[in-house]
Description:
Elements: H1 5-35, H2 38-43, H3 45-94, E1 105-106, E2 113-114
Antiparallel strand pairs: 1-2
Helix pairs in contact: 1-3
The structure holds zinc ion (ZN).
Amino acid sequence: xxxxxxGALIVVVLGIxxxxxxxxxxVVFQNxxxxxxxxxxxxxxxxxxxxxxxxxxxxxxxxxxxxMFIIGLVLLLVSVxxxxxxxxxxxxxxxxxxxxDGMGGFCQYCGRPxxxxxxxxxxxGRSLKKQP
Length: 132
Ligand SMILES: [Zn+2]
């Protein structure tokens, strides 16, 4: 994995931050544009245009932040799932599943699976009956 869980988390947090900055920018300049009267919009169109331009930029930044947030979330899920798979595999290698009662078991000498009614291990030939 190129992206670690920490890296994915940073992308998620950055996405939230950038999305919030974009949203705030869009809302602030939308309010500024809305607060201008019809007369002000007519007399100073460049100021109105500037406000609406900033609204557009704010929305683009907000969308970029949202996309980053989603990508970070996907990376986070992938990294969590892959690490879970890894730990499951390690646990499987460390401790083989114990045989359930009545399902037989493993030879205590060579580890070969044996049937529950077996008297002799088919692998090493030793007696499977426990010594009293
Ligand atoms: Zn054996």
